[in-house]
C-alpha cells in the first residue's frame, strides 16, 4: 500500500466515526426546512436532517419518495425552493455545483468510454490544472485502493460492471472530497456482485472515514451498509435510526411495512397495554395513550413468533394449528392459525426448531407472541 494511502487510513482511525465519538462531533451536514416544489407538486416537504462527520447514511424508500431529489438538493443539482443546506458549518444552499465539496457516483457510472481507466480517474484532477506527476501519483493510489492497479490502461468497455463501479468510486474520491454521494450505486449489477461490492464500499468508507450518503430502494443494502437509515415516503422523513432501530422498532406503520416482512393484524385497544386481535387478547409494550375502543394495527415480525420453551413465558401464550409450511432454505415459512379466533399468523421457523419439536402441517403447537416484539400503531399501514 502506498504511503499516502497509509496516511489516509491512519487519519481515518482517529476520525470520529472510528473512535465512536460521532455523537459528540458537530454535524458535517445540516439540512433545515428543506422543501422542493416542481410546479404544484411538492417533492420534498420541510426536511430536517443532520449527518455526522464520518457517518454512512442511507436514504431509503420507494420510487418517488423524494430520496434522489434530496440528494440532488444537497449537491446543488436541484436547488431547494425553501430551506437551507449547511456543510462543514458553511451555508452552501446557493452555491453552484462546482463550488461544493463533494464527490458523486451515479447509477450509470458516467465513465468516459474514449478515455483509459487512468484518464477517467484523473479527469477531475487534470481539470484543476494539477501537475502531471501529482496526478499520476494520486491515480496510482486510488487504483490500488480499489484493487484495479493492473487495469489502468484499459478502457471502460473492457471491464466488468463491478470494476466500472470501482473506477467511478475512485474518480469520485480523487479530489479528496469532504462528502461522498452514492446514487443507487449498485442497482445495475447482478446479485452476487452487489453483495461483494456492498462489503468493499463499506470497508473503504470506514478506512477513509469519509462522510457518505447513499440513495437506495434496496432495504438489504441499507441495513447492511449504513450507520443510520433515513426512511422516506411522499417527500417526508418517516424515521431516522440505526438499522436495528428501524427494523426492530419501526416508528410508523409505513416503516414496518416497507422494511422486512411483517404480520399486519387489525386490532381494537382494550387498555393502554392490551389489544384484542381477531378474538385474541394480547399484551404489548410500550403502552399507547389512546382510549379503549380505538382501532389500531398490530405488527409482528414472522421470526419473532416463539415456539421453544413457551411454558416459561407468562404473556401472550397461545395454541396454534400448523398450516402450510414452505421450505425457504434456512427456515420454513409457516402459517399458524389460533383455534377459536380469526387470528392467522405467518411465522419463520428455523430448521432446527422444526426438527427438534417435530413441527409439521396439521399439528397443534404452543406459541408465544412476546409483548416487547409487538408494535401497535393507531393507523393502518399506508401503501408503499
How are the elements arranged and paired?
Blueprint: H1 3-13, H2 16-19, E1 27-38, E2 41-52, E3 56-60, H3 67-75, E4 82-87, E5 90-91, E6 103-105, H4 117-121, H5 123-127, H6 132-145, H7 161-173, E7 179-183, H8 191-208, E8 211-216, H9 219-225, E9 228-233, E10 236-241, H10 243-248, H11 253-258, E11 263-271, E12 274-277, E13 280-283, E14 295-300, E15 317-327, E16 331-337, E17 344-350, H12 351-357, E18 364-368, E19 375-377
Parallel strand pairs: 3-8, 3-9, 6-7, 7-8
Antiparallel strand pairs: 1-2, 1-4, 4-5, 9-10, 11-12, 11-14, 12-13, 14-19, 15-16, 15-18, 16-17
Helix pairs in contact: 6-7
Structural summary, described in words:
- The protein has helices at residues 3-13, 16-19, 67-75, 117-121, 123-127, 132-145, 161-173, 191-208, 219-225, 243-248, 253-258, 351-357, and strands at residues 27-38, 41-52, 56-60, 82-87, 90-91, 103-105, 179-183, 211-216, 228-233, 236-241, 263-271, 274-277, 280-283, 295-300, 317-327, 331-337, 344-350, 364-368, 375-377.
- A six-stranded mixed beta sheet has the order 6-7-8-3-9-10, with helices on both faces. Strands 13-12-11-14-19 form a five-stranded antiparallel beta sheet.
- The longest helix is centred in the middle third of the chain and has 18 residues, at 191-208.
- It has twelve helices and 19 strands.
- The chain has 384 residues and is α+β, with helices and mostly antiparallel strands.
- Helix content is 27%, strand content 31%.
- It starts with a helix and ends in a 7-residue tail after the last strand.
